[in-house]
Amino acid sequence: MKTIDSIPTGKxxxxxxxxxxxxxxxxxxLKYYGDTLVDPQNAKEKLNQNNASxxxxxxxxxxxxxxxxxxxxxxxxxxxxxxYVEQFSLAQFSVPPLSAPxxxxxxxxxxxxxxxxxxDTFNSKSIAAASIGQVHQASKDGKKxxxxxxxxxxxxxxxxDLAMVKPVAIKMFNIKGKDSDxxxxxxxQKLLEETNYILEVKQSQQMVADCKHIEHLIFPDYxxxxxxxxxxxxxxxxxxxxxxxxxxxxxxxxxxxxGQALWDFYMYQMxxxxxxxxxPHPGNFLVTPKGELVAIDFGCIKVIPDSFYIPYFELAIPxxxxxxxxxxxxxxxx
Amino acid sequence: xxxxxxxxxxxxTFDFSDEAFFSKVADLSEKxxxxxxxxxxxxxxxxxxxxxxxxTFFGLYNLMNDLGAKVLVNNYKxxxx
Lengths: 334, 81
Hints:
Chain A is α+β, with helices and mostly antiparallel strands. Chain A has 14 helices and eleven strands. The relative contact order of chain A is 0.09.
């Protein structure tokens, strides 16, 4: 796989990327007008496809928060045209990884030590890339570990990236001017939290303590001693991504069992903890060879305040939703 | 949208391979994207907490649909520590 040696970290170089994407989208739009004359039926689909892959190509080289926005957009499967979804879904797995020398350099910068001084073994070729980091395999005292390293420059670029992505997102989500600030502040705050790996280790350990009693659900252990604000060390767990699993699985009993574990996990968080892992995409779950569900990556935790929880779920009761008076009252509480 | 999102929670069991449910979700978003009046309304979405909560439900339901699992909805109540 192709690796990259540097990430455009300066605001100007990042902006250039996005402008380039914008220009390409403009060209696609022109092509579209041409195509509508010839084949109006397929033209729209083709336009979306071309736009989606150009936008994705632009975002891919930025990594970081722009990619995170792509990831978020891809969650809303049904709201976006299919072509966008397919391109953006790639964002969840395949991003060109950092080259081995850059990994070593980054590790040293964060830890003051080279990975081989800290671990017994360390594979400088990344196993998986995530939106704001990539994962390496290591071992220490006979234990297999997964080491997540954050891409350099991510935390600093969030605010400026977001400012650049904002106009696109406003259009896509149909957010009105007045509300957009409110939403973008929420997104910005959550993204900044996600770059804080010390917080993520804490949140992960809390989640493990709260939810490890749920059946058929397992978590890796986390190692704060080998983690810091940009690096996380956890147990390596063998398994395949949930999306790969569902593509080939034909065992209904097993998928029911995994589904029940996933459902219980979320209902327990929602109703008992009132604190949920707000990033349920297929890259964050593994299925072990024994058929257990593994949950990883607790960078994005949403605390549900009572002021939201109570009216939201009261509203959800069928009697209330069909009673216009209560419905309106609860809606205003939100 | 909310009534659809919370629909699985009002039953004792729910089958996430139920394509009827997911096509309703798809129809709804289709409606949202085509109806300009609705789009304008959609602009004002109320609490900022909707953003991540709706995102969570969307993600969860998509995963459940991929699995096509049939679940006991209230099983979590038996899981208290």
